[in-house]
Design brief:
The complex is a heterodimer of chains A (151) and B (243).
Chain A lengths: L1 H21 L3 H25 L5 H18 L20 H4 L1 H24 L2 H22 L5
Helix pairs in contact in A: 2-3, 3-5, 5-6
Chain B lengths: L3 E4 L3 H22 L3 H24 L6 H4 L3 H10 L12 H23 L17 H34 L6 H6 L1 E4 L11 H19 L28
Antiparallel strand pairs in B: 1-2
Helix pairs in contact in B: 1-2, 2-5, 2-8, 5-6
Classes of the chains: A mainly alpha (151), B mainly alpha (243).
């Protein structure tokens, strides 16, 4: 009899665990992909600064990606997608504990990336570099406060 | 049959060898603790040393030259058969040890090359040639940089184990000659040709130039020369400013 209970219990628990692992909140994957796209776009822009002659078209295209992706960040952290949800994440609890500060940080990113896109449209490298630096500062600001420090 | 005390390892070979010994743990430690600026400086020093050793392997002293010690499987088999017989000592690397030298130098070359293109997860701390490759290539290079390190570490353990084996089983001290350069032979053997200091200085100059050039991002093709920056330095955001 005892054995039966164990089997029955296992039968109930196993699907629950697999359901949990198989269907994590899509926000985890969406935000990961979005941040990776932003990372790639930042690299795309900073790479041009280092090259012998910067390709303005590449900078413009990557600035557009950054501006678009930046708008999504604020919506990618619904409640229950922090650490402890069973999915590996570098998101810190501070995101949900300090919603006002987090909102300010994501707004800053949106403003900075829009500024970079506008600077890219002018084609003025001095302005572009300054605007890219502001975007970098907004990335860093959020990473310092809301992301698990790197090992 | 007078005993002969010969210089088997010239000073450049010894300096490069012991620099590797000092640099590798430091490189590992700076990577582990994420002191990336220091890691890059040490890595470029390593690049210079590896470059020096590769060129020295072509134009350097007799025992330093690849053409003298790199041997095929037949020579290795012959060496293994005659190895316990000390009547014909090998001056320089023996055919089996040569495998170790070639493998270690090849891995060091691969490791330092991968590091040039590598990046961390944010592509902030990036090697000096990272901007010339795509995100995906750089990520692959970074992963390979981690794997090659482990292979290198395994080979170094084997290298040290072989030295211990020679010391204990074969009663052959390999460490002292790598420090002093000198080794005593019971039977007369010819002193290997030693390259001049001038030549070593010339090869060192080439190695430094290569390392510095790569650290600048291989101008003019990969980057501007540092003195050709169009914008004032203050306006160029540093990589540290983002992420």
């Amino acid at each position: 009899m005892k054995k039966l209970y164990v089997i029955a219990a296992s039968l109930m628990v196993v699907p629950a665990i697999s359901a949990f692992a198989a269907n994590p909140n899509p926000a985890f994957k969406q935000r990961h992909q979005n941040f990776e796209a932003m990372g790639k776009a930042m690299k795309g822009i900073f790479d041009e600064f280092k090259k012998p002659s910067a390709n303005l078209a590449t900078i413009k295209a990557n600035s557009a990606v950054l501006a678009q992706s930046a708008k999504k960040v604020g919506g990618h952290f619904p409640k229950g997608t922090g650490p402890g949800a069973g999915v590996k994440t570098e998101a810190l609890p501070a995101i949900w504990e300090k919603p006002v500060e987090f909102k300010a940080a994501t707004d800053r990113l949106v403003t900075a990336t829009a500024g970079l896109q506008a600077a890219a449209a002018t084609g003025d490298m001095v302005k572009i570099k300054a605007a890219a630096g502001t975007v970098g500062g907004s990335c860093k600001g959020c990473h310092d406060n809301f992301r698990k420090p790197k090992d | 049959m007078a005993a002969a005390k010969l210089v088997v390892w010239d000073a450049p070979v010894r300096i490069v060898h012991w620099s590797f010994v000092a640099l590798l743990p430091a490189l590992w430690w700076t990577a582990e603790t994420r002191q990336m600026d220091l890691h890059f400086t040490l890595g470029l020093t390593m690049l210079g040393l590896v470059t020096f050793r590769l060129v020295w392997g072509v134009v350097g002293s007799g025992t330093a030259r690849f053409s003298r010690f790199v041997a095929g499987p037949k020579a290795i088999a012959r060496y293994l058969k005659s190895a316990p017989d000390n009547a014909n000592p090998v001056v320089g690397h023996n055919p089996l040890g040569a495998l170790s030298v070639v493998a270690l130098l090849a891995l060091l070359t691969a490791q330092v090359s991968l590091g040039l293109f590598a990046q961390d997860t944010d592509a902030v701390d990036s090697g000096p040639l990272n901007h010339l490759v795509s995100w995906d290539t750089a990520t692959a290079a970074s992963e390979a940089h981690g794997i090659v390190f482990n292979v290198l570490a395994a080979l170094i353990i084997l290298h040290v184990a072989a030295i211990v084996f020679y010391r204990i089983v074969r009663k052959n001290d390999l460490v002292t000659p790598m420090i002093s350069g000198r080794r005593t032979f019971a039977s007369p053997v010819a002193q290997p040709v030693l390259a001049s200091w001038a030549k070593a200085a010339g090869v060192a100059a080439i190695a430094v130039a290569v390392a510095v050039w790569i650290s600048f991002g291989v101008p003019p093709w990969g980057a501007k020369f540092p003195w050709d920056e169009t914008a004032p330095a203050e306006d160029v955001p540093s990589v540290d400013s983002y992420m």
